[in-house]
Amino acid sequence: MLPTKRSLRPAERYEYPEYLRERIASMPKAPGVYLFYGDSDSMPLYIGKSVDIRARLLAHLRTPEEARLLRQTRRIEHVRTAGEIGALLLESRLIKELQPLYNKRLRRQRWLYSIRLANGRPEVVEAVPPDREQALYGLFRSRRVAGERLLEMADRHRLCLGLLGLERYEPGRACFRTQIGRCAGACAGRESHEAHAARLLAALTEWQLFCWPYPGPVALHERGEGLRDYHVVDRWHFLGTYASLKAARKAPAGPLPRFDADSYRILLRPILQGGAGIVPLL
């Protein structure tokens, strides 16, 4: 039995405005970023990205849960990019700059935290771009979350919280967790401290952040239909996109921005695996 009009939710009853369909029909089938605007000309309702802008916008029209967003939309704008990397980087930057209403997950530039080893013990510190002098492990949204993940790792690998500096340690005396099988007994001499330290390092290595592999800034070169983008990156910091290599080489120098985990995650694969042409700028 088909649902009656009365039984349908508002999102299912909503008929999308024809002016949105007409606007979407004129959008390119190409990579880029799109912006939904309501009554405000300066603050978008939503920012998205796709390798095919038109197809992604049509998908919005077929999603009943997004009826509220579309009901508020007065116009849709777009910005072409040469490829997916540029679309991802531009989306991330615009969301942080323009603070759109519906992009709750990415719109705040949060302080992030990592774990490092100090005198063989893990400690939680503010996340910064990793270097070869000090390895960093994991990206966490708060000190509390980092601590929770560290405890979970200790349980999983039967590490001693006393040796980790997370609870009181009495040399030679088995901790409570040893009695319940959550500690392998390094605290009581059942394994050497060296073996415990090696297991800790092996466990943390799963979270290790990658060091910047170049001596200076580089440009990631993306080619698209009639477009060329050069994304300038230095020590995992995204510094901007330029239309030519000459302009990229003249990118403004100065203090690097705060470490951004979103940019790090976007750039990790193309930088390390060569997903785009890499041009050293030194």
TrEMBL record:
One of the record's GO molecular function terms: hydrolase activity
Keywords, sorted A to Z: DNA damage, DNA excision, DNA repair, Excision nuclease, Hydrolase, SOS response
Signal peptide residue numbers: none
The UniProt record lists the keyword Hydrolase: yes
Alphabetical list of SMART domains matching this protein: GIYc (SM00465)
Residue ranges constituting the GIY-YIG domain according to the UniProt record: 29-104
Descriptive protein name: Excinuclease cho
